[in-house]
Design brief:
Elements: E1 2-3, H1 6-14, E2 24-26, E3 38-50, E4 68-72, E5 78-81, E6 86-96, E7 101-107, H2 109-112, E8 116-119, E9 123-124, E10 129-138, E11 145-148, E12 152-160
Antiparallel strand pairs: 1-12, 2-6, 3-4, 3-6, 3-12, 5-11, 6-10, 7-9, 7-12, 8-10
Length: 163
Amino acid sequence: MSILKETEIQRRLKLEITDKESLVITPRPRKKAFDYDSVDLRLGCHFLLPQVPPEPSWGSAQVGGHSHTRIHVPLGSYFVVPSHETVLGVTLEFIKLPSDLSGQILTKSSVARCFMVIETAPWIHPLYRGKRHFLAALFWGCSGFKLDSWWLCGHGGLGWMKG
């Protein structure tokens, strides 16, 4: 697999949506969101926090919605993640990958320096369509972390796969 350069990412973003090589990222990233080989992605407005105290459960039976609290953070607002908590969130951007591209979401170093890790499902498969879910695990000692909507959360690197 080869990594796409910014010029190729930009070229594919300009293609018609019906083109088999087209790449869609909506809302369209600003110029400063592009690096040599990646695109910065931002936090969206919807998050899931583990329910505290947790409901008793067995296995994955709680997936139906009882094991978490839903939070909506309007654009421009924030919420504070308690220390040692894990938050499930989504990217602000909707992503559509063509069949010859896959992607990977990596934690930005500026985020990692705050002891926050963005990951869990970092691989974006070819033909993926949707907002990318990730886990943001917080490892602060005694304090919480202010999480803003629209916060830059990770790099989206795109790789070209020879078919």
